[in-house]
Amino acid sequence: MPHIDYFFATISPFTYLAGGRFEAVTAKHGASVTYKPLDIMQLFARTGGTPPKDRHPNRAAYRLQELARIAKKHDMPINLQPAFWPTNGAPAAYAIIAAQNAGGGDLGKLVQEITSSVWAREKNIAEDDVIRDCLSAAGFDPALADSGMMVGAETYAANLEEAVNRGAFGAPFYITDDDQRFWGQDRIDDLDLHLAGKL
């Protein structure tokens, strides 16, 4: 059975725009997944990337056009200037880590609930009540928002180190157990072909 390590950021619009397509592909191929939320700004800093706020206006303008096109292509709502972005994505990441350790819910749905809170629902994912609502919607105990903070912080930091060491530099970033790397929601089809043995 193939396995995929999924590096992503809770505040990333491109993680949001992956929607449920990644999970559909993994289900199709019976692949297992380890969800690895990380600090995307630190990943940029460590791997030669530039945070959105520091990008040249040409790049910033293109990014907004691209986000709007992708959202329309996949019939997903998006607010290109969300009220709570950037925000502290760590508490939501800790909740995802706790949920993965606890089991019992739908991790893909949890990631989508959290990222859509930022990019479609004008909610602040740094707030405990928002995180609890996302956990409940994905079938997890909302109390997970208040547990495992130390483990969450340690895992969150370890995910960043692992991402850097394994060649990741953006989000979403998918790494297969045979070390094939796929960057971006627009590479999910390529991941599908790879898992099918066609690429």
Shape: globular
Compute the separation of the termini in Å.
17 Å
Portion of residues in beta strands equals 5-15%
The amount of helix comes to 40-55%
- pLDDT averaged residue by residue: 97
CATH H level, superfamily name: Glutaredoxin
Give your account of this protein's structure.
The chain is α+β, with helices and mostly antiparallel strands and 199 residues long. It has one domain: 3-Layer(aba) Sandwich (Glutaredoxin). Helices cover 50% and strands 10% of the residues. It has a 4-stranded mixed beta sheet with strand order 2-1-3-4. Helix 2 runs parallel beside helix 9 and helix 5 crosses helix 8. The radius of gyration is 16 Å and the shape is globular.
Which SSEs are present, and which pair or pack?
Blueprint: E1 3-8, H1 13-17, H2 21-29, E2 32-37, H3 40-47, H4 57-73, H5 90-102, H6 107-119, H7 128-137, H8 149-165, E3 173-176, E4 181-183, H9 188-195
Parallel strand pairs: 1-2
Antiparallel strand pairs: 1-3, 3-4
Helix pairs in contact: 2-9, 5-6, 5-8, 6-7
Describe the structure concisely for a colleague.
This protein is an alpha+beta fold and 199 residues long. It has helices at 13-17, 21-29, 40-47, 57-73, 90-102, 107-119, 128-137, 149-165, 188-195, and strands at 3-8, 32-37, 173-176, 181-183. It contains 9 helices and 4 strands; from the N terminus they run E-H-H-E-H-H-H-H-H-H-E-E-H.
Name its key features.
199 residues, alpha+beta, Glutaredoxin, 4-stranded mixed sheet, 9 helices, 50% helix, globular
